[in-house]
Amino acid sequence: xxNTALKxxxxxxxxxxxxxxxxxxxxxxxxxxxxxxxxxxDQAQTVLIVLDDxxxxxxxxxxxxxxxxxxxLDNISSRVTHDLVDIDFFxxxxxxxxxxxxTTISTPHIHSIQLSPNGKVAMYLVPIIAGxxxxxxxxxxxxxxxxxGYITIEPDAAGIP
Length: 161
Prior knowledge:
The chain is mainly beta.
C-alpha cells in the first residue's frame, strides 16, 4: 500500500514537472544560475506547513530573500489529497532539491506540488523575488472552504528587491 502511495505521489510530481513553459505568460522559469554564489544548505532554516482538512497551518509564512530554507509540507490527512499552488510563488523561488516520501529529486523549478494522504515533501529552496504570494489548494472545494494562505518573501537587509 505504501508503495502504491509513493507511485501516485511520484506520478503527480512528474506531471507537475512536465507542464508547459509559462514563458508565453511572461514567466521565466527559475534556474540554478539565479542562486546566490555561496549557499550553505546545512544552514537552511526549516519551515513546516501542515496541510489538513482544508487548512494550511500556519497560513502565513515569512521567508527572506537569498536565504536557504527547507520547506516541509506535511499532509496529515489519512484520506484526502492536498496541493500547494501559486505560479507567482513558484517563479519567486529556486528549488535546489525536493524529497517526496523518501525519494530525492533535483530540479530548479516546479509549478505546484501535490501530496497524497499522509504525504510529506521537503523542498530545499532559496527565495529570489520579494513579494506576498497567495498560495492555495486547488483540489475542488478546498480553497472555497478556506485552504489558502500567504507566503511572504521579504527583501534582505541591504534592500535588494
